[in-house]
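[SOLVED] Need 3D model of a three-part complex

Original post:
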Amino acid sequence: MKKLISMLAATMIALPAAAAGDQFHLYNWNNYIAPETIKRFEASCKCEVVQTYYSDNEELLAKLAAGAKGYDLLVPTSNAVQALIKGAQLKPLDKSQLPNLKNINPIYLNTPFDPGNKYSVPYAMSTTIIGYNDVKMKELGLPTDTWAVIFEPKLLEKIKGRVTVLDSSSELFAAAFKYLGYSANDVDPKHWDEAAALIKKAKPYWAAFNASSYIKELTVGNIWLVHGYSNDIFQANLDAQAAKRPFHILQGMPKEGAVLAVDNMVIHKSAPRPDLALKFINFMLDGKNSSELTNLIGSGNPNLDAVKYIKPEILKNPAIFPDKAVEDKLEQLNDLTSAQRRLRNRLWTEIKAGR
Amino acid sequence: MRRRPVGLWAAALLGYAFLYVPLFIVVVYSFNDSRLNAEWVGFTFDWYDKLFHNQDMLLAAGNSLLIGLTASAVSTVLGTMAGLAMYRYRPRLLSILVLAPIAIPEILMGVSLLIFFVLLNLTLGLVSVALAHIAFCIGFVAIVVRSRLAGMDESLTEAARDCGASPLNAFRYVTLPLIMPGVIAGALMAFTLSIDDFVITFFTAGAGTVTLPLQIYSMIKIAVTPEVNAVSTLLMLLTLALIIVVSKLSPSLLGTEEENA
Amino acid sequence: MIKTALSMQARSRLGRWLVSGPPVLYLLIFFAAPALIMVLASFRTPGDFGGLAPLLENGKLDLNLESYARFFTESVYAQIFVKSVWYALLTTLFCLLLAYPLAALIARSGKKHRDLLLLLVILPFWSNFLIRIYAWMIILGPNAALARTVNGVLGWFGHEPVPLLFSSFAVLVCLVYVHLPFMVLPLYANLEKHDRALLDAAQDLGAGAWQRFWRITFPLSLPGVYAGAALVFIPALGIFAIPDILGGPEDSLIGNVIKQQFLETRDWPFGSVLSIVLTIAALVLAGTAAWVGRRSLGTPSSAEPARA
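Solution:
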């Protein structure tokens, strides 16, 4: 035992306290920046990029709310940015350091959640849409361009137990609102009850509320229809093709509209190196650098200068780069107040408890 | 002559099968020629090759092993003391302190430890993670040791004391050998809990601190590739080898007891 | 004995502090103090951003019982709570049934194999949790052998096929799977010390195998059963990852609800209330079970022979 402990102590001491030099701490989603982009940034800033990952905006918010420090740059979605601004967690951006900001499509700038882009700059986007197995859906003659296929028992009957929806109350309520013809950000409690009733009616036909393993099951062919994120569905099809499946996983943009999620670069108030963070933001606003992420994971791109570097097959995908008519029906989610979140949670728990 | 307990063997075999069918899949799929952990496609060594070039994953595995060994060593010592104290003195406070960390939802423990470390101005890193792991492992060790002690004859320890043994010697030569299987069982549990913890680690780790579960959970949305099966397979082999080496070096660590016929 | 009674007493008090001091101190600092922050949080108001609203606003202390009132008035939370207790109980029972033969076999096997057999129980759990669960998704998938067999048999009886994946069955199987070693290890630690002579004597007196088990082995192993039951039941009560990944639409447990309070809903006060209720319930249930056990079966410890 003593030997073991002394051995451990020796290893602990021998561990160097991280090589000295400039470090830039990026708190990001996993696989949300191309490796070659990192290499080039490291060369240009003469620093080391240290990435830490989260897999959910909510995880990020909880961690920062509890007081975690040491991160230079975060990449949260707009509604989380809104929450972070409310919580005074962000450092205002010095725009004189961001000449490449001109590359961003103006329709993604100066949004209600951050007027004048005081704190945030768009990074990449995705939509929450329908993903489906083309062979199965065709065989059963089901539509793939409407939320009806997720919510209407009449249609669901044919694919009972082969459908999953996201395990996220905000996403699922938004889809239900859209189907009912309301705004994704509707806050009328009567409409909330209506959406909850719609969800409860459809629930018996769903296999699961699932945010973590639905893509895999879709690719294998166990699940035929999902309510999910466009990036994930894009990836599912790449995987399905790599595995030579006899079907494709396609993206269906509901005609009623859908949720648009824009992820933004923001600097945390405790950032040890805000200078490197600004350099990074400007670097990522460059068209070529920005396009590499889109080419890697099929994310939407708000950078006009990036378009010329993006693979044509991604560019012509309407779920990733929607045309004007669809774009008008996309909505970004607002952050709810704490009272609204409580009400939402009660409805959600009732839905899940099966009442 | 005793009859061979056929029924017992059959039942135990069923138990092992339950444990090993999934593990078999884990290991086999580390050689699967597909990104997805879902269906057998073909044989490949690619994932091991990828793994050996994946600095992040290797560093994370090293950190997890280091934290696991440290946390299980410290919590085994503290947990054994707690188990002894619970058995001998039956203190209320300690019993609650030992059970509550097991009962409390890990997300609450994670958030509260993070708030606490921030209040203390402790820089988050491997140390804060290890401190947190020790806190939730102590209880598991203490409960096993306590149950091992149940019904043990204290007269042996007393006899040793009467013969002039110091309390420390009485513990070392009488009590410890008697409770060793409990201590080992506790240490194994502590290591298992530590090396696989995600929630509490997520909250207590600092910027740039990686452990294997943190690395792996962040992949959950994009696909947990067979690289993870590969690293798990290697980690299991490595830990097994480590235990065998340590037990060869000091046989007293694993099973102090002489077989008594 | 030459030592005076007084010095013996002083010594034993010193011993008591030396043995219980370090773990008590450690747990007070790294468990109780942080946990108290969250106990206090349960009386506060959630902040809009997340976390908590300021404790002192306009000179008024923000402490209230709102979150507690909510738990007791909105029955849906209590319902899920009861369901979780039920799942945890079933998990404990199945773990016990599977673990007992394993632990008994390891305990009675020779010294040479014992360590290896014990290691084999825990070895699978050094692989990552997620890929173990993924392995179960493969086993339970609709096109795998298990689901085909089950549904083939059901088909014979004219029953329509049932899904195994994304179901309560999947959740329960995996709950049992991940908690099994926590039942085997304490049971083994207990069974290992049993004196064979006692069983041999019983056999000589004509007791059958079953009788020997029920009358001798099982009662003697009760402390191990309690320990294992506690180490399975209590953690199983708060689990959320398994229902998240493998559960069907009905399989949300209290652990999931608590997780939501800290993540999606950003309602720490209510999350703390649910956690406190869960913790107290677990401690009370564990305490009662141990007490009832001691009552109805006599203190097994007093009947137990020591092993030298």
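Edit: The radius of gyration of chain A is 22 Å.
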